[in-house]
Design brief:
By secondary structure, the protein is mainly α. It has three helices and no strands.
Length: about 90
């Protein structure tokens, strides 16, 4: 059981950390700053389970797990993430 929980916790913590770092790359003053580490946490957990299935089926290498975490966070917070609607007045819809 410990062989499953420790890597899961580490992947979740790594995801939350990368999500927080991704927050630093965004414009300051953005709404919902807690969204970034939370999405990172969920992406880390999801990437762990994807990696676990890949290891069980095709024997994926261990270095694939952090790559999966980073790619998922980039997708979920980048191109597939929440969109900012600019109203043209500089207030971003507030």
């Amino acid at each position: 059981m410990q062989q499953l929980l420790i890597p899961l916790a580490m992947a979740a913590a790594f995801g939350a950390f990368i999500g927080a770092l991704f927050r630093l790359s965004r414009l300051p003053g953005r709404k919902r700053p807690l969204l970034f580490p939370l999405v990172g946490l969920i992406a880390g957990i999801t990437a762990f389970f994807i990696h676990y299935v890949l290891v069980s089926t095709v024997g994926a290498p261990i270095w694939l797990l952090p790559v999966l975490v980073v790619v998922q966070i980039w997708l979920w917070l980048g191109p597939l993430g929440p969109k900012v609607h600019d109203t043209g007045s500089g207030d971003n819809g507030r």
